[in-house]
Write a structure and sequence with these properties.
With 260 residues, the chain is α/β, with parallel strands linked by helices. The protein has 8 helices and 10 strands. Strands 3-2-1-4-7-5-8-10 form an 8-stranded mixed β-sheet, with helices on both faces.
């Protein structure tokens, strides 16, 4: 794919993020403005009840790279991602780059994702567990649970991805539009990979350092409990059993890395 023709949209769901919404938009748009590609930041306000909507409206008046899509009520992380994908498809973008609003994913890593998009990877995943990636300020107990869980998921999925649960990733819009994602919450990341196992041909990884949320930000809604583990693990198990996510999906293509 010629770099001058590459286009991508960054999709960020937000729910009650008034403390960090402005900083997030400013930093991401600053990074996009430095890149010689057609790009856009699509923020999906998922029914926020605080001042998030007002902040986004104010910033949007002065920020041409920002597009805000609003859910009247909270529909969940998965639904917000689907709304963002539809907006990116309507905008005729080649890729969606998903990020979190708390900036635990650094906008400074966006150019490295773009480099893999230029090489034509179907899926580009951030990784904390290979190539120099890591975590900073995250409790050891959470890190070890995540590391072990991702090793299991990688083995069951059978794809060249070390950090399956990482939400910082880029996927071709043409693939996303073939997926019938149903999860409302965070396991949609694993449901998406289940589809990728049968649809994607090339994968790439970008080593990143995940940082903890700032003290003034809303605490993460993620809680470790047995039902949560199964909601994530069932998709790798289904993939291991060679059960496609839908009857319309054909045989799994041969998977390779997009770059050496």
């Amino acid at each position: 794919m010629c770099p001058t023709n590459l286009s991508f949209a960054v999709v960020i769901p937000m729910f009650n993020e008034e403390a960090g919404a402005e900083r997030c938009v400013v930093e991401v748009c600053r990074e996009l403005g430095r890149l010689p590609y057609r790009s856009r930041l699509i923020v999906v306000d998922d029914g926020s009840s605080d001042g998030t909507a007002a902040i986004l409206h104010r910033i949007g008046l002065a920020q041409p790279l920002l597009q805000v899509v609003t859910h009247p009520v909270n529909r969940g992380y998965g639904a917000a991602l689907r709304t963002g994908v539809e907006a990116a498809h309507d905008g005729r973008f080649d890729y969606v780059l998903f990020m979190d609003s708390d900036l635990t994913n650094s906008p400074a890593d966006v150019p490295r994702f773009v480099a893999e998009m230029e090489r034509g990877a179907d899926v580009v995943k951030a990784t904390r567990y290979s190539g120099g990636g890591g975590v900073r300020g995250v409790p050891f107990s959470r890190w070890i649970i995540s590391a072990v869980g991702n090793r299991v998921a990688r083995t069951l999925f059978g794809i060249p991805i070390h950090d399956c649960t990482n939400g910082f990733r880029a996927v071709k819009v043409s693939l996303l539009k073939q997926m019938e994602l149903r999860e409302r919450r965070f396991p949609v990341i694993m449901e998406e990979l289940h589809w990728c196992r049968f649809l994607a041909r090339t994968y790439a990884e970008v080593p990143v350092v995940l940082t903890a949320r700032q003290a003034d930000q809303r605490p993460t809604a993620f809680v470790y409990r047995p039902s949560v583990f199964w909601s994530y693990l069932r998709y790798p198990v289904l993939a291991f059993l060679r059960r496609p996510p839908a009857a319309s999906v054909g045989p799994r293509p041969e998977t390779t890395r997009a770059s050496a």
